[in-house]
Amino acid sequence: MSGGVDSSVVAGLMKEQGHNVVGVTMCFNITHPNSKKPSCCGVDGIEDAKRAAHILDIPHYVFNYAQDLQESIIDNFTSEYLNGRTPNPCVRCNQHLKFGSLFEKVRKLGADYLATGHYAKIHFNSKDGRYELKKACDNRKDQSYFLYSVRKETLPHVLFPIGNMTKEEVRALAAKYNLANAQKPESQDICFVSSDGYKKFLEERVGKQMMAPGPFKDETGNVIGEHKGIAHYTIGQRDGLGVALGRPKYVFKIEKETNTVYLGDVDRLFSKGLIATQMNYVSIDPPLKDFETKIRIRHGFGEVSAFVTSMDNVQAQIRFAEPQKSITPGQSVVMYRDDIVLAGGIIEKAVA
Q1: Is residue 140 very low, low, confident or very high in pLDDT (cuts 50, 70, 90)?
Q2: Cα 322 from chain centre
Q3: Which residues pair with 250 in a beta bridge?
Q4: Helices 198-206 & 75-82, crossing angle to 10 degrees?
Q5: Fewer beta carbons within 10 Å, N or C terminal of the chain?
């Protein structure tokens, strides 16, 4: 229970269905006093979760995961940006904390299931004898992209009770349960980053001296300006570059070794494929031969057709049916078949 309306409603639904429900909250010791959006798992979130548990008349416990967040998520987040990559901390949080450390803890404490407020579904395929991760019914809220890294062994013991519901239906249930957070605003995107943004977070964490300026170069290697540190940029970026070149230019490559950011025309952003590592096959076994699938290369991005060559259990090469724009190392590529999440991995590099 993060303190938000989704997880609070899940607790109410589980109790209404006759389960013996215990509310648990992960404490990350996060505070953003001036933030415009609430942070999940912060001090205010914990208090909201306690209030919801009291209203629902269920026991509630708080587990301290501040150090785990630091070591598994924030350190990686910082390192990735300083190496010219663009990480997705929500994917890692689901993998290492919510469906890693927390899942193992509640199972050891005797729970049969871990139920969360994610917008996704888990379905048992009786024909193949396996559990499958699927998209939520509400495409606007679907979080399946962030869940591909969940181990398939955990799926039989995970519940996503609101996967068949819309946000409006969830809020209506919250009102039915008399929950005080029925109209609570959505939490911010990255819980440990305030509304000041990730650049400010990185500067406060590592100091400006660790974000050394360096050259902007064009496609031919000519120096055309100076950047503020590679952590300030991501592939496909056009705004905020601070250089005037007479026509739009985009970040198409970031080179950590030389501290160089390359700018070029929009056509330099297109790639024919990518290499993905840290592959996780959540709904299928690693394929023994090439296969065609739909992929998503970033959250909120439409699915496109692609061909996957499985190189081993942890790495795959993906070739697009048509060239795709702004392939970003550090982000996730997720594979789908209809509404089933097949697998996903971390983008290592684009393939020309």
Answers
A1: very high
A2: 25
A3: 264
A4: 100
A5: C
Contact in structure between 235 and 228 (CB atoms under 8 Å): no
The encoded tokens of residue 340 equal: 């089933």
Do 320 and 284 sit in the same domain of this protein?
yes
Label residue 151 exposed, middle or buried (CB < 10 Å: 0-12, 13-18, 19+).
middle
H-only helix segments in the chain:
5-16, 43-56, 66-69, 75-82, 89-92, 102-108, 167-176, 198-206
Q: What is the pLDDT of residues 257-300, one digit of tens each?
A: 999 999 999 999 999 999 999 999 999 998 888 999 999 999 98
Among 230, 264, 298, give the residue marking a domain's end. Answer: 264
Catalytically active residues are 93, 191
Q: Is the dihedral of CA 171, 172, 174, 179 positive or negative?
A: positive
pLDDT digits over 146-164, tens only? Answer: 999 999 999 999 999 999 9
Closest listed residue to residue 187, CA positions, set 51, 299, 37: 37
CA dihedral 149, 155, 157, 161 (to 10 degrees): 90
Residues 170 and 238 placed together within one structural domain of the fold? no
Same domain for 220 and 327, yes or no, is: no
In this structure, are 61 and 171 located in the same domain? yes
**111-131 residue pLDDT tens:** 999 999 999 999 999 999 999
Q: Is 122 domain-assigned? A: no
- Containing domain of residue 236, as a range? 212-264
Query: pTM score > 0.85 for this model?
Result: yes
CA distance 162 to 118: 7
**Of 64, 119, 65, 69, residue with least CA distance to 93:** 69
Q: Answer yes or no: do 85 and 220 share one domain.
A: no
